[in-house]
Amino acid sequence: MQGAQLRHQPPAPGRKPVPRGASRMVAKEPMSARLPKANFSFLKSLFWPVLLVVLGFGTYEGATRLLPYADRPITKIAVQGDLSYISQQAVQQRIAPYVASSFFTIDLAGMRTELEQMPWIAHAEVRRVWPDQVVIRLEEQLPVARWGDESLLNNQGQAFTPKELANYEHLPQLFGPQRAQQQVMQQYQVLSQMLRPLGFSIARLELRERGSWFLTTGAGSSGPGIELLLGRGNLVEKMRRFIAIYDKTLKDQITNIARIDLRYANGLAVGWREPVAPTTDKPAVAKN
Question: I need a surface site. Which of 2, 19, 89, 245 has the fewest CB within 10 A?
Answer without folding.
Answer: 2
